[in-house]
Amino acid sequence: MRIKLGSFSERHRQRIADIMAGRLVPPAPRDAATVMVVREAGGGVEVLMLRRPAAMKFAPGAYVFPGGSVDASDAAPEIGWYGPDPAEFGAALGASAELARALVCAAVRETFEESGVLLAGPAGGGAITVAPEADRSALIEGGVTLAGLLASRGLVIRADLLTPWARWITPEGESRRFDARFFVAALPAGQQPAAHAAEADEVAWLRPADAITAARSGDISLLPPTAATLNDFAVVTAAGGGVTDLLAKRRTIEPVCPRLVVEDGETWLLVPDEVGYPL
């Protein structure tokens, strides 16, 4: 799949050309984690999406899933854990057990920071906790770490709620690159997502097929990994699947590595055909 891109500066195009020619070494991607929070509504599946503020430099106005980079604090051994062994996540995501654990912790932290949804609960399982907004603010502002927040509330990460789904690596032509692992999780009972002003100006629950239709008509903007993941969900739900089916699905996850190329002065994004890019 070839996607024609616009609004690339001459400097950016030259950077891509230099990388293509081997004159410039691309930066190594940072590990990141993203969570697609889903729920049953009106007889179908809806996905939680956040609209990025127009003032953001990267992808302003795009509808995205909660997520972000792995921080050093996400690898803290004192973070409580309930669910499959990290090595199981690592086997699915192409990561060591240590990195897989940090990815899951980052997924939980970023989802809480950006949407207010906390995938944590008491040790040994049990009901998922609804956390006070003050806890979220303290975590965002750096007043507490994820380990400290969970410990103060007697909570642990609920890794059993997360299903690995996909892995996307930012093209080499970008100056900021991420190796992002995608997870799917059901919205815990009693929790209501709310945007954090620095990260999103709107929270929306969208059916996967509707989101793709809206993107095709230009009503919303989707990044390629977001659009492809929504298409995956649309295929499952079109066959009658619901949230339980998404969570139970065990996929063979291969890294998707799109490429940026410059041809005759035009910039193109090349996405592998097998991905099923819908736009």
Describe this structure in words.
The chain contains eight helices and 14 strands. By secondary structure, the chain is an alpha+beta fold. The chain has one domain: Nucleoside Triphosphate Pyrophosphohydrolase (Alpha-Beta Complex). Strands 2, 3, 4, 5, 9, 10, 11 and 12 form an eight-stranded mixed sheet that branches. A three-stranded antiparallel sheet has the order 1-14-13. A three-stranded mixed sheet has the order 6-8-7. β2 and β3 form a beta hairpin. α2 packs across α3 and α6 crosses α7. The longest helix has 19 residues. The model has no long low-confidence stretch (mean pLDDT 90).
Outline type: globular
Question: Number of helical runs?
Answer: 8
**Strands, count:** 14
Name the CATH homologous superfamily: Nucleoside Triphosphate Pyrophosphohydrolase
CATH architecture: Alpha-Beta Complex
Assign the CATH class.
Answer: Alpha Beta
Helix vs. strand class: alpha+beta
**Helix content estimate:** 25-40%
Q: Which blocks of ≥5 consecutive residues have pLDDT under 50?
A: none
The end-to-end distance, rounded to whole angstroms, is: 10 Å
Q: Percent of residues in beta strands?
A: 25-35%
Q: Mean pLDDT, nearest integer?
A: 90
How many domain units? Answer: 1
Question: N-to-C SSE series?
Answer: EHEEEEEHHEHHEEEEHEHHEE
